[in-house]
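Our platform keeps sequence and structure together, in a single record for each protein. Because each token names a local backbone shape, the row as a whole describes the fold. One such record is reproduced below, unchanged from the form in which we store it:
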Amino acid sequence: MAQRMNGAILGATTFAVIGVLFLIAAIRGFTSSLYMSLYGNVANETVGAIALVVFAASLLAAIVAWRSSPRRSIALSATLLVGAAILATLVRWNWGGIVLWAVAVIGGTWWMALTHAARSRGRGSPFVLGLPIAVAADLALRAGFRTVPVSDQPLPLAVAVIALGALVFLAAGIAAYDDAMEWTSPGSRGALALAAIPATLLMGEMGATVPVTAAVAGGAALGPEGPGRWYLTAAAIGLAMTAGASAIDRPAASARLVGLVTLAAGSALFWARLPLIGTLGAVALAAGVIVAATLLPDTAARPARTPVLAVVALGVGWVAFVALAFLFYAYYALPAAAWIATVIVAVGLLAALPLQRPRFGAPGLVLVGLLAIAVPLGAFITSPGTTQLTRTGSFRLMTYNIHQGFDDGNTPSLDRIAEVIRAEDPDVVVLQEVARGWMITAQHDALTVLSERLAMQYVFGPAIGDAYGNAVLSRLPLSDVRYVSYPRQPQLRHQPRGAILLRVADVLLVATHLDHIGGATEVRQGQVYALLSAWNNERPALVVGDLNALPGSAEMSLLEGAGFRDLAKDDGADQPTSPAADPKNRIDYVWGIGVTGSQAHTVATTASDHRPLVMNISRR
């Protein structure tokens, strides 16, 4: 009997772990498809409203439960989650992806609420261990697959991994659940705890479990360096997760205190944005997330006629998830959104009534450590080195707006972008719209991916929060790196912008991306003035990037008036670069002073929504 019970608990925990991973993948797939397809075409509020409707549909789980038994309700919602995720992986079409990932999100939120509320006598929630192990496994998947989501891997690999996960998910569910199940209610305090679970996951997405965000918050991962630091930071986060898991085996009051202290102190340190301190804050937050993920699902299980209270509690949590995610991303990594999420989780911890024993134990701690520490360290050890060349006076240069790692049809395209760059064989690549791990850009760290695949070191200049901005890839030594932030505009439609200044091959390189709003010429002129002030008449020099202004505009006249030359135009290659499929606008430039450009050309590709501009640079 005991052996059978242990097998059922193992099956239920496995069922919870894999289901949560599918749900996390669905959330990222849906939000990234929605954002990339609609941003700039409709108002941000419309995008947020669509997301709100999808996540609010989690409340409909009560109707599913009313019409079906616990076992059938779980089976139906699990089928929607996994089936839609598999189809979305196969389709890989942005509009189809929006619909299919939305169905997966709805099915997944139903599944979580119904699985939590449906209990066999004497058993607790499978999410008590399932949710924290899933968070650790998610970090392992990020590291093991080099930050690219499983659903965006080469199709044969993606289908194989997801199909295997679905089969294990099905087998675990069959092993864990029988017909002797009943609906339960978490009680009022348990409902408060459940409502905080989505905010706990969002805290991870906003920085607690995103290695590059954790590193940049402490002044690291900016370069010049190769891609290895990402994995070391991931391992540090994994160590914190393991420490948080070990704290769960303490008395309940002690574990709750550890969670509250790590959340409060971690948030304060993380958002302080001080060298090293910011990273330590993110590490502390990771420990707090694991503690919260373990304690919050550990609610009372009073027999009830329906699972309505659990469904409503989690549904309210998902609505708060969307609202806070909208505030965070639409308002350019707004710290207030993260603080509100922290408060919600803290309130949930105070309300939680931890009941179950034992917790992780030695086997559970080993599993968390293997997932969250060993996998990132393995990725670090196997990370390719970077190529270092020594050259002065001349080099091959490319500027490329990579559209956050998506093609002109808004589907993930890092493979194609890497091939475009590799084929042109530049020594230095200036990149714009570099996304590094955001939920709304499919989680991938475009800079780590490209740095690894091209064996080039990088410099990163964050512009929005810690995970979006400009970058430079190089085979040549980079030195004297500094950053310039342009004046912030009061209107929300103007994104924060800046520039990276560095020396390469004895040439000052200024990498930038000017304001993208049509008609905002005065804003761009102000940014050019700031750029020229930072340049300080140093020669030879280059100003490179997506300048979002046409030839002959007031913005470009400022550069020309300062003595810079439009090197592509001088070389007879003043071709349009945007949009990529049928370019009509020339907005990507290489301006130089004290240098010349030769063999200038654009590359006909739709791997991004811009075409890259390439040329050879020589000192005069």
The longest strand covers residues 394-401. Residues 208 and 282 are 5 Å apart (CA to CA). The chain has two domains: 2-381, 394-619. The chain is about 55% helix and 15% strand.
